[in-house]
Model the fold of this input.
Amino acid sequence: PPWTAAEFALYLLARELGTASLTLLGSGEAAVLLGGRLLALLGISALFPAGLFRWLRERLADGDTAVRVVSGGSFLALFALWVVQGTYRGPGRLWSAAAATAAGITVLAGALLLREQRHLQETARIRLMERYLPMVEELVESVRARQHEYANRVMSVSAAVNAAATLEEARAAVAKLTDGGFEGEADRELLRCDSRLVNGLVFGKSREAQLRGVTVRAHIAAPLLHRAMTEGDLVDVTGILLDNAIEAAPAASDVFLRALSEDGALRLTVSNPAEPKSAVELTQMFRRGYTTKDGGGRGYGLYNLRRMAEKCGGRVIAKNENVDGVNYLTVGVLVR
Done:
């Protein structure tokens, strides 16, 4: 598979760096050969905890062109140098210079790749802000309008009580003015969220859900930012969860979005009324291409959600919950 070549290129890079270093230190040929391999193995072992290999596999599995080009080019250059070194013995310093040059080119290519990745991430964040921040402004205006309505109604209640001649008249007046209660609690709940992008997303999805006769009820009781998961991925995860739940929920039902703290981690879940699922079905939901819906191009939302959670060391959540005799399917992530 492609990632095997990429990992072997990393081994060759570490080997050439070790060989060059030992040669420049004046070590003998045997020490250079054995020492270079030992340093390469130590270097590769140190890279595993950093998650570099997992990152490479994910980028290659996603078809990232830049990663494929850099990995392939580095592999060919380092492999060619390795083969020539094994068949032709020349001056040690010459091979040291060649190894250092090949390693330097590989490191430079990797640095340029990381810089490009950061640029792409920043561009994606700007696009998210352009898409969802206008919804946040609409949310703020909605809350302000309701606060104004709330203030006016409170003043009316106070005036009605003062004008009433008896306690019964006051009760009747207050009941009439407060009929239907005060709306806007859901919007005010969203404003407690520390991510404006998630605010805008949930507000927009709530409006879409209303058109389907579904009500989204959000409860944000934990900070979303400064987690292992980036804000962009957090927006994607929330969108996937809400889209699936709103589409599956029957009309005139509620969908619950909850963000809670669990031992310092963020537990982000969405629940919707659904038929109970078996343990096997709950596991299969996150497999690539798994879907119970008609039409092509489906079955990748929860698969991508699992990948994003695992990428930052988290895990997915899927379970049945009984609420007042109604089964709810709860799906989400747990991330630090």
Observations:
- The mean pLDDT is 77.
